[in-house]
Amino acid sequence: MSLPFSYRHLYYFWVVAREGGMARAAARLGMATQTVSAQVGELERSLGHSLFKPAGRGLALTEAGQAALQQADLIFQLGQALPDLVADAAGEAGQRLQVGVGDGVPKLMVQRLLQPLLALQTAQALQPLQLRCSEAPFEQLLAELALHRLDVVLADHPAPTRPADRQQARLRSQLLLSCPLAWYAAPALLAAAREGFPQSLAEMPVLLPLPPSATRDRLDAWFQAMGMRPRVAGEFADSALLKTFGATGLGLFAAPALLPEWGVTRAQLAPVLAAGLLAVGNRLGWILLLAIVAWHLRLMESTNYWDYLIDPVYTVLAVPLGLRAGLRRRRSAGAHPAGAPTD
Fold it and tell me: Of 57, 82, 116, 263, which alpha carbon lies 20 to 30 A from 223's?
């Protein structure tokens, strides 16, 4: 491939533009000023446009020069990073899997999709696999995939069948899994929404993902089929941010039905943690224990264990129990001083 200009001439131009003049650029390059000026002149003749114009005692970039500088910045910044990238690639053993993740895909779903592959690598003693996941808008991920910068993209909708970019026409989509949507909210909103559901959603604040999103398309179609117009309290491009605002009570939100399983999995750690704290005499163990009992009895509307843990009622109830346990330990320690034999 023949180029209409020399990269060596472009580099001289880049140094002159960054140094702000021919003399300073020549000093940096260790060359004569006339030589640098001649090299930049060669680039201007190759491109067919003047890149500098006189400005007082110095030089200023023309419009064409500013455009050329922007591209030169990209080219030589990539060139400066090349040695490190080559060294990193040469020093890494095994294979690398570049995965792009769409904004609307739940992170737990991504982990579950990729976990069998990672387990297979371990079980069959294959070459180590380095997993690299990046999150970006769907259109950007498709562009990266078309340029082979990504190996696979996990998204909530397929690639367009007639993309504007010809490179993206070679992309293929495959449905991996589907799951129903469920409604989630803070306990107070959830209790109010349960009365007369689903018609009650017409009067409740709702959080929705920003389009384009497969979840948003499904929700819009569902609301239309139900003859409801939701009261939108917020729209979010990032699913994690949407759930964060939903947890604060800003509104109800729809998410894949596998979301509660994550809360149950975390709650399974609580009994182990409570037992460990109680074993070492930590009063926090009583708080965890009472929260576990309340969670199993479903004394609140929420099904999330952590709502019970932070509820002040159970915290207050745990204080006298913790104090009582502390007094017993002190009395026991006073009756049997350290180092004294016991029966």
Answer: 263
Cα–Cα distance, 100 to 133 (Å, whole number): 6
- CATH number for 45: 1.10.10.10
Q: Which domain holds residue 249?
A: 181-257
On the CB side of 115, CA atoms within 13 Å amount to 6
Top-confidence residue, 298 or 156: 156
**What is the per-residue pLDDT for 41?**
92
For the record, the structure tokens of 175 come out as 């449905």
Computed over its alpha carbons, how large is the radius of gyration of the chain? 32
CA dist 206 and 215 (Å) reads 14
Q: For residue 99, what pLDDT band results from cuts at 50, 70 and 90?
A: very high
Q: Is the peptide bond before 198 cis (omega within 30 degrees of 0)?
A: yes
Torsion sign over Cα 219, 224, 230, 235: positive
Pairing of strands 129-136, 52-55: unpaired
Domain closes at, from 39, 68, 89: 89
Q: What single-letter DSSP state applies at residue 199?
A: G
CA gap 173, 171 in Å, rounded = 7
Neighbours of 304 (CB within 10 A): 19
Check residue 304 and give its pLDDT: 53
- pTM beyond 0.90: no
Residue tagged 């999995």 (tokens): 265
Q: Check residues 4 and 284 and name the one with the higher pLDDT.
A: 4
